[in-house]
Amino acid sequence: MAKQKNILELEDVVVKFVGDSGDGMQLTGTLFSDTAALAGNDLATFPDFPAEIRAPQNTVAGVSGFQVHMGQRKIFTSGDMCDVLVAMNPASLKANLKWAKPGATIIVDESAFDEKGNEKAGYKTSPLEDGSLGSYHLIKAPISVLTKESLSDVEIDKKMAEKTKNMFVLGMMYFLFQRNLDSTLDFILKKFSNNPEVVQANQVALKAGYNYAETVEAIVSTIKIGPAPMEKGRYRNITGNIATAWGLLAASERSGRPLFLGSYPITPATEILMELSKHKSLGAKVFQAEDEIAGICSAIGASFAGSMAVTTTSGPGLSLKSEAMGLAVITELPLVIVNVQRAGPSTGMPTKSEQSDLLQALFGRNGEAPMIVIAASSPASCFHYAYMAAKLSMEHMTPVLLLTDGHMGFGSELFRIPKVAEMPEINPPIAQPREPDFKPYRRDPVTLARKWAIPGTEGLRHRIGGLEKTNIDGNVSTDPLNHELMVNIREDKVMRVASYIPEQEIFGEDSGDLLVVGWGGTEGMLKSAVGHMQKAGHKISLAQFNFIMPLPANTIDVLSKFKKIIVCELNNGQFVKYLRMTHPEFKYMQHNKVQGLPFHVKELTEVFTKILEDK
Amino acid sequence: MLDKRIEKSPVPLKKEDFASDQMVKWCPGCGGHAILAAVENVFPRIGYKKENFTIVSGIGCSSRFPYYVHTYGFHGIHGRATAIASGVKIANPDQSVWIATGDGDSMAIGGNHFIHIIRRNIDVNILLFNNQIYGLTKGQYSPTTPMGKVTKTSPQGTIEHPFITAGLVMGAQGTFFARVPDNNVKLMTEVLYEAAKHDGTSVVEILENCIIFNDKAFSPVTSREKRDENQLILRHGEPMIYGKNQDMGIILKGTSLYAVKIGIGGITEKDILVHDQFNPDPGIHRMLGRMIGPDYPVAMGVIRSVKAATYDDMVEEQINVAKRSSNIKCVDDLLNSGDTWEI
Predict the structure, then answer these.
(1) Cross-chain Cβ contact B84/A297 below 8 Å
(2) How far apart are CA B330 and CA A410, in angstroms?
(3) Are residue A174 and residue A316 in the same domain, yes or no?
(4) Which chain B residue has its CA at the smallest distance from A247's CA?
(5) Beta strands, E only, A406-539
(6) Facing B328 at nearest CB: one of A281, A419, A420
(7) A326 and A346 fall within a common domain
(8) Overall domain count for chain B
(9) Would you call B343 and A37 a contact, using CB atoms and an 8 Å cutoff?
(10) Nearest CA to CA, how far is B123 from chain A (Å)?
């Protein structure tokens, strides 16, 4: 009979699973998060894996990780440092110990810390024995050995048995957090339905891990995290890339325009392409093109032909698409370009996140080529902003560039499921058959949008293209004044979108000592830091921008009511350059980080505190 | 077969139904004029509703084409007509999609898209205006310019091995390839009609004279004096006979083709190869496509036309299957699929 354990009730906990690339840490982390969500916790997750598919086994280069931040309060980020670190081998411990809080609980697979494993990780002595982990709560469990023992009665080969060690450790974690095993048992049953032995092995390992944790003395207490207060509704866990794909599908359904995606695989955007490929039952046509240029060009062709057209990419691909984006601007066709940003320049760090494509998004095209630019700010928000991107693009007949990033693309959070019928209407200006005196560049007087004249429609035959055209008639023209007119109309059309987007919101009071300005994916980090300082009594607020081009109509109003403004970005200062250009009447400080890592709440509060102290 | 998906015009159409109100700005004597005439001939004959034609182009002299025909038209960017047209056809398979492109547009800057549209066998028709030169930028060599040719960027003669269009198309697993000279509008019209009937990507290479920068480049093959001796006009099921006196022919000996004179060395008409444009084996088609003077005549007409599933048909089929079999009928179904819970 196991000794009765204490129960530790916590507001929020950060758990990180780390192991070798082949150890199944992504699946383990995902299942652990799903179970937490089912228990009512709010959460945010972030996977951290190497660009290499299988780096040399048990080396630091091959470490794969999955972090989850769960709480009985609103969770904004996947967390800075972890409270519990699960390390399946020495290399993963070595790579991640710096992310463990002082005094954190560390669970290790003791069986992996042999001489060879330690040496491969670059440890001269075993960290489990040399006292270097003395300040942590270390739980040593011979996980690999115990897993194999637990499966002695299951008909399965040794290699497969070894593979279920992730389920064993997941079982241990479920005991530690007093979770129900049912949803994971059910998942295993469905996932391996073709292979009953594998189902049995995984289920046995999961339960064995749970029972082991219950009996082992090193675990003195279990952790309780209660349900978080949340708005009523139906929820699910969702990553940013999936949310982007689904937002686009929703916009297609709501607008009645079939979805066409022309895309080329690129990290970290590929998942959107893969996800949309699954949904042919919703009429989505997905074209995996031969390159990035064909991706966007096929989408432009599909848009001309009447589809809600999309292309998805990441930084280097955005560079390749530049010329074609200009084509979409001048032909005034709807097109959504999704750029899941990663650290650049060039190939840069494909699996690491950054916000450094903003200036390219705004200005990276030849000629005067204005474009609506929107940025999502968290995994679930990708759904909403992808939807808005498609809506604005179709209703205003101009391309929209949606910026997300690798961090939110791969990261997940809880998503309150909307009903498509309750989402804003989308009404593209489609030209009707035999419209009297149809002209390709005749415009709506308010939005300046031209009409979408779809091939096959009677009485609307017309030609458009990359050469400058006369306004209204759409004939090829090099007339100087017409060109200037068209340049101005295209610019004005984009600027008028400001009347169709929400006003900029402020997190906190709308005046004070310091306004923190961010955009896109840093929302969670900045909100956590600013919220923390607000609680401490500082007059600090946050304006997190999602609409970049055009800026919300009340931007001047927002910026003018604070003594100081600091713009925080994960780049070398791109949004701040844009603000200095568009609103030079204000003085901006800036805080930048370009490490392929998110901001940490602690570093932000230190920066803000220093500014508030400087009189 | 003409495409049954595409709605036919309820009334017979005329050339004038496709006449554009734009001024044709090609140079007088440019081969483009003949191509335009052939297209205006063939569109009414194909008989689809006039709103069901879309012409897409890239950049270059050839690519002004959409402005000169009254259809839906899209003038794209350099090299990308094939990619843009792929999107048009996949999104809107009820359109008869035609691409106007040149040798530089399709085989230099657009080479990648060109081979991939052919490989996918998307049901579009490519009019490849091959004048072996860059015309709109005023006379630089192209990927089809013969080696040694002096141009503005090759003052000592080019040192590049040119593409043979037929070889590239068949290397990319092309299902339809035809070649025509720009001064035979009758043959061009026939061939374009065959191209329209073909299910899949058809490539029609038009040997086009650039009167300004590469005049008479094809005259050894196409001139009135030389054409009978140097052109073999292929017709399916007929022997490959040519020459003013119809006494020349093509035979297969070993693994090669030879041009022979009937009556010499015991060769009779029975020895002459009979053209089979539907033969799935590309061997003979490739050899025919590569024939070049002085040892051979240049093959004209439909060289290859074989059946293969088209990308656009298969897309529709996969969508239909998914719509029938998937539980996800609308986005609400999708949003609520998998693990969800009520709070």
Answers:
(1) yes
(2) 25
(3) no
(4) B331
(5) 412-416, 463-465, 512-519
(6) A281
(7) yes
(8) 1
(9) no
(10) 14
pLDDT, one tens digit per residue, over A559-594 is 999 999 999 999 999 999 999 999 999 999 999 999
Q: Which residues of B touch A258 (CB under 8 A)?
A: 91
Tokens of A449: 């949008």
Alpha-carbon distance B100 to B65, whole Å?
6
Query: Is A418 domain-assigned?
Result: yes
Range of the domain at A595: 512-613
- Chain A residues with CB under 8 Å of B83 CB are 262, 289, 293-294, 297-298, 301
Residue B155 inside a domain? The answer is: yes
Q: How many separate domains does chain A show?
A: 3
Give the CATH number, domain containing residue A598.
3.40.50.920
H-assigned helices in A151-259: 158-163, 165-176, 182-191, 196-215, 240-255
Residue of chain B with shortest Cα separation from A463: B73
Domain assignment of residue B28, given as a range:
15-217+309-321
pLDDT at B43 over 60: yes
Q: How far is CA A290 from CA A339, B80, B100, in A?
A: 18, 12, 20
Scanning B17-56 for CB atoms below 8 A from A yields 22, 49-52, 54, 56
Please answer whether residues A14 and A43 qualify as being in contact, where contact means their C-beta atoms are separated by less than 8 angstroms: no
Is there a contact between B341 and A282 if contact means CB atoms under 8 Å apart?
no
User: Closest partner residue to A455 among B95, B332, B336, by Cβ?
Assistant: B95
Token pair for A6: 């204490």
**One domain for residues A252 and A157:** no
User: Quick one: DSSP state of residue B119?
Assistant: H
**Is residue B299 a part of any domain in this protein?**
no
SS3 (DSSP) at A219: coil
Domain membership flag for residue B29: yes
Q: Which of A405, A422, A439 is the last residue of a domain?
A: A422
- Chain B residues closer than 8 Å to A476 by CB: 22, 67
- For residue A29 the two structure tokens come to 């982390």
- HEC string of A86-109 equals EECCHHHHHHHHHHEEEEEEEEEE
Q: What value does the mean pLDDT of chain B take? A: 96
pLDDT digit string, tens, across residues A146-191:
999 999 988 888 888 889 999 999 999 999 999 999 999 999 999 9
A104 and A220 both lie in a single domain: yes
Which ipTM was obtained for this model?
0.98
Phi and psi torsions of B241, nearest 5°: -110, 140
Last residue of a domain, one of A387, A422, A457: A422
Q: Are residues A277 and A144 in the same domain?
A: no
pLDDT digits (tens, 9 = 90+) for A23-50: 999 999 999 999 999 999 999 999 887 7
* A13 DSSP β-pair partners: A70
Q: Are the beta carbons of B85 and A301 separated by less than 8 Å? A: yes
pTM of the model: 0.95
Helix (H, G, I), strand (E, B) or coil at A294: helix
- As a whole number of Å, the CA-based R_g of chain B is 22
CATH label of the domain that carries residue A129: 3.40.920.10
Q: What is the DSSP string of A448-475?
A: --B-B--TT-TT---EEESS-B-TBT--
Indicate whether A487 belongs to any domain. Answer: no
Q: Cβ contact (<8 Å) for A281 and B323? A: yes
Say how many CB pairs under 8 Å bridge A and B: 206
Residue A371 lies in a domain: yes
Q: Decide if A437 is inside a domain.
A: no
- Quote the pLDDT of residue A1: 44
**First CA to last CA distance, chain A:** 63
Specify whether A114 is located in the same domain as A195.
yes
A31 and A120 in a single domain? The answer is yes
Classify burial at A386, counting beta carbons within 10 Å of its beta carbon; exposed 0-12, middle 13-18, buried 19 or more.
Answer: buried
**Nearest CB partner across the interface for B95, out of A419, A456, A476:** A456
Residue B233 contacts residue B187 (beta carbons within 8 Å) = yes
Q: Cβ B112–A419 below 8 Å, yes or no?
A: no
Q: Is B71 on the interface with A (CB under 8 A)?
A: yes
